[in-house]
Design goal:
The chain is of the alpha+beta class. It has 13 helices and eleven strands.
């Protein structure tokens, strides 16, 4: 069928595949189509399936030729893709797009057809040095401040909430009724809140009147005048002055336990003293730090490898990965796409705004994944045969087809080798400590700001 093919590499790992189909194959498919229609189509003046081919061709020849020619092009494309080099085969999610379709029409009898399709292929690149690199990471240790903060959080978690007499103070838990008043002292519709509970100083009330409640007593009602600056974060109130009526309904405080041996024993039976609790807490924080350091090391190494290995990622690959992230996000929320989009519309956002950061993350993830895959192939890691058979037995239960079992085995072996890449890279590159960073800043990532 195919008379000639050629491949031209384009930007961003896409190619132009040009195929020429000989006129003999085209005419054969056209005649086959005519005969098929002649046996089934109803033509006025003839019984069904009895109209002469010449009559059918005279009435419908152009449309049938167009249909059969496009079918021929489709089959020729499949044949061409099967025969081309593996590196030029299209990605599974990249559909070949026919170029300049209008220039092919009208199809003429006894003439070759030459067409071109564009599609994306797997990116190719030469792997740069990936061992013996030297990278800088923050210098961080579990300091006393981190241990104290963790212990304090533990104390707060075990605090009891108790009703309070006297005046309100920062840190107290208050329950209030409040409403905004207009210039005549009337209540502004839609601003009333009943039995609203919040912690003074948390800033979780809309009008931010925490400080204005200090020294109030239970049962007391107070008019509060609030002026908001031009840079206020209270939506819709920047530059305004308003009056609120606030009534304190109840007041409670958190009774934080003392840090003593008894408290340590309450936390865990094996802790006998405060010293035991402090030691265990430090060990817990050190474990978390070690895990975070490994992540930071790998991220620093990833940035270096990505910079040293330019890869022309096709857009279809990034889009596909972002769409997968979007679907995972919907599953995590337990909502449909329509429900999420409706909520986003209320916030003035659209789907593209949600996908944009996912595409940026997809770009980075795909690059390091492709690099790691190259490292895997270069290193040819050994894997444990017994472990392969164990996983194969678990994942291929009930599969008896030898070809399918072989495919499962290949996939399992590939996954096992890929899992060795990360540890290998961390072990074979050097990470030197740079600027000193506090434990808290390191763990929450604020040191990067």
């Amino acid at each position: 069928m195919i008379a000639d093919t050629s491949i031209k590499e384009l930007e961003n790992s896409s190619v132009a595949l040009t195929v020429t189909v000989g006129s003999e194959a085209i005419e054969k498919d056209y005649q086959d189509a005519l005969n098929k229609y002649a046996s089934t189509i109803q033509v006025k003046g003839f019984r069904k399936g009895k109209a002469p081919v010449s009559v059918l061709e005279g009435k419908f020849g152009k449309a049938i030729r167009e249909e059969s020619s496009f079918n021929t092009i489709e089959e020729a494309l499949k044949e061409a893709i099967e025969k081309i080099d593996e590196k030029y085969k299209p990605l599974s999610f990249s559909v070949p797009v026919l170029q300049d379709e209008e220039d092919l029409l009208p199809f003429e009898a006894n003439k070759d057809i030459t067409f071109t399709v564009h599609y994306d292929v797997m990116p190719t690149f030469d792997l740069s040095q990936y061992t013996g690199l030297e990278l800088s990471i923050p210098k961080v240790a579990v300091d006393d401040a981190a241990v104290d903060a963790e212990i304090q959080q533990l104390l707060e978690q075990n605090a009891m909430v108790i009703d309070k007499d006297g005046e309100a103070a920062m840190g107290d838990i208050a329950t209030v009724d409040y409403v905004e008043l207009d210039e005549e002292g009337g209540e502004v519709a839609g601003t009333e809140r009943k039995e609203f509970t919040f912690t003074l100083g948390s800033g979780t009330n809309f009008y931010q009147f925490d400080e204005d409640m200090v020294a109030m007593k239970v049962g007391q009602e107070k008019l509060i005048t609030k002026s908001y600056g031009e840079d206020s974060t209270v939506e819709g109130y920047a530059g305004k002055t308003i009056t609120l009526r606030v009534k304190l309904l109840s007041l409670r405080f958190r009774d934080v336990p003392q840090l003593d041996d008894e408290f340590a024993q309450d936390v865990k039976d094996e802790y006998k003293t405060v010293a035991d609790l402090m030691t265990a807490t430090r060990e817990k924080l050190q474990k978390a730090l070690d895990e975070q350091l490994e992540a930071v090391k790998f991220d620093a190494l990833s940035e270096k490898l990505i910079a040293d290995n330019p890869i022309a990622l096709p857009q279809s690959m990034i889009d596909f990965e972002a769409e997968q992230s979007w679907k995972r996000y919907l599953r995590q929320l337990g909502l449909t796409e329509d429900q999420v989009l409706q909520f986003m519309n209320f916030q003035g956002k659209d789907r593209d705004e949600m996908l944009d950061p996912m595409k940026k993350q997809a770009d980075k993830s795909l690059r390091i994944q492709l690099i790691m895959d190259k490292v895997k192939d270069a290193e040819k890691f050994e894997i444990d045969e017994a472990e392969v058979l164990k996983v194969l037995d678990e994942q291929a239960q009930g599969v008896s087809d030898e070809e399918q079992l072989a495919l499962y085995r290949t996939m399992i072996e590939d996954d096992m080798r890929f899992a060795k890449v990360g540890p290998f890279l961390l072990e074979n590159n050097t990470f030197k400590e740079g600027d000193e960073v506090s434990y808290a800043a390191f763990m929450d990532g604020s040191y990067n700001a």
